[in-house]
Amino acid sequence: MSSEEVVPSDHVFEIANNLFLLYMDQLGTKSEWEHGGVDAATRHFGKLENLVRKMLRKAPPKTLIHGALESDSVVLLFTSLTEALSFVRTLFKASFRQPHMWIRATVLPVHDFHTLRYEEEFGTDFSQVRVFRLSREVLQAISIEKSGFKGMRVLLKRDDYKRKALKVAVSFTHKDYHTDVTPVRRLPDALYPPILRGEYKDFLWMMCDTQAEWELLKYLAHKRLFSAVQHPDEYIHAAVTWSLFSVAGQQLASDLHSKGIPLSAHK
After folding, report:
1. Reduced to 3 states, what is the DSSP secondary structure of residue 234?
2. What is the pLDDT of residue 222?
């Protein structure tokens, strides 16, 4: 199978190794159901669907081989970890420009993959009834996302990646400064549910290619934090996300300092 082949969503297949499953879930669905019913929930689902469609059309990932969207969740399967993370980073940065849109994600390695979802007969006595089941790989991703971690974050399992594959080039064009950073960090234990502590790290999706974009995202994070005061359901996510920006800023400052670049270049 070519790495550029897109497999129909109902196709069952098997690839031995080197697959990476990206699972994304849009937050806030319960609130939409409670306050606006079917119409509000449908509009909510459409925001994520439209964003994914826009990102795929803008820069189609060459290693995307399979995927599915359902309500407020997205599953995409890549043969490249680098491209999976590049895609989720681009999508998160785009979604961050949309008020009240919060997404959580995880990226997991997959082995001996067959399908995302399959169906079985309910029983020989009820052949007209079908049972739909998710694959174990998708259930594993959902279990991580549903474990209770807060904030707009992308989790990676520890040691499931090669540091060289995650390098992000950061340029400070106004003074021609340049550095490469590895945007993976473990946050304080309090920011991970007990079941994930010691096993997962965060991919700092807000690491940007230019200082101008970094400053814009910081501004949006700060704006979201203050506006979330009026939306209790969002505040915890905004606060934890702001803490990620602080970690990313500290890492950038440290990397610049280690290369002898004046910290004044990093605001």
Report:
1. helix
2. 93
CA angle 131, 134, 137 (to 5 degrees): 160
Question: What's the distance, Cα to Cα, between the start and end of the chain in Å?
Answer: 47
The topology under which CATH files domain 13-146 is Alpha-Beta Plaits (3.30.70)
Confirm if 68 and 117 have CB atoms less than 8 A apart: yes
Give long-range contacts, CB 8 A cutoff, 24+ apart: 96-100: 96/152, 96/206, 96/217, 96/220, 96/221, 96/224, 97/220, 98/47, 98/51, 99/224, 99/227, 100/28, 100/231, 100/234
Summarised one tens digit per residue, pLDDT across range 111-170 is 877 778 888 888 778 878 888 888 888 888 989 988 989 999 999 987 666 555 566 656
d(CA 62, CA 5): 8
Please tell me the distance from the alpha carbon of residue 149 to that of residue 104, in angstroms, as a whole number.
Answer: 9
Spatial separation of the C-alpha atoms in residues 133 and 253, rounded to whole Å: 47
Structure tokens at 175: 């003074």
Domain ranges of the chain: 13-146, 159-184+206-267
Convert the pLDDT of each residue in 197-231 to its tens digit: 888 999 999 988 777 888 899 999 999 999 888 88
